[in-house]
Write a structure and sequence with these properties.
alpha+beta, 1 helix
Length: 73
């Protein structure tokens, strides 16, 4: 079974949160708001959160059950 992945990516204006097979998109004005929503969604879906930088590289790639600090925890 493939791991579910939630993606936070820069957009033309603000940040985009992409989720699911059909790539449902949500728009946010700030990166912090997109990441907070991404963690919340990842927890509910038992998914990984990938946060992309403006250059396209992955800033964070963390499975939900990792021991890394989760913002807001």
């Amino acid at each position: 079974m493939e791991a579910r992945i939630i993606r936070v990516e820069p957009a033309a204006y603000g940040w985009t949160l992409r989720s699911g097979i059909n790539e449902t998109q949500y728009q946010f004005q700030t990166m912090a708001a997109a990441i907070a929503a991404g963690w919340s969604l990842a927890r509910r879906q038992n998914a990984e959160l990938h946060i992309s930088r403006h250059d396209g590289g992955v800033r964070l790639h963390a499975p939900l059950d990792s021991k890394q600090d989760i913002p807001g925890e």
